[in-house]
Amino acid sequence: MKAPMSDLVRRILADRTLSKRLMLAVQSERRNPDDIEGRTITVDGQKLTLTRATAITYNPHKE
């Protein structure tokens, strides 16, 4: 069962610039979990901080 996605997450993933910032925040968290500024992105004037990135998987054959 898949978890529902919030409207904010859909908006971030649909926007190329925001999705790039999200990926940079994930990479920053993986490199240095103590870097709060690197893990923070701003969406609609609201600062969002990535708390933990454990794994990102991609399965192109899953239907």
Q: How are the SSEs ordered, and which strands pair?
A:
Elements: H1 7-14, H2 16-31, E1 40-43, E2 46-49
Key traits:
63 residues, 2 helices, alpha+beta, globular, two-stranded antiparallel sheet
Shape: globular
Radius of gyration: 13 Å
The mean pLDDT is 79
Task: Please state how the strands of the largest beta sheet are arranged side by side.
Answer: 1-2
What oligomeric state best describes the polypeptide chains here? single chain
DSSP strand (E) fraction?
5-15%
Structural class: alpha+beta
SSE string: HHEE
Name the helicity range: 25-40%
Find the count of extended strands (DSSP E, 2+ residues).
2
Low-confidence stretches: none
In words, what does this structure look like?
The protein is an alpha+beta fold and 63 residues long. 38% of the residues lie in helices and 13% in strands. It contains 2 helices and 2 strands, in the order H-H-E-E. It has helices at 7-14, 16-31; strands at residues 40-43, 46-49. It has a two-stranded antiparallel sheet with strand order 1-2. Strand 1 (40-43) and strand 2 form a beta hairpin. Helix 1 (7-14) crosses helix 2. The mean pLDDT is 79.
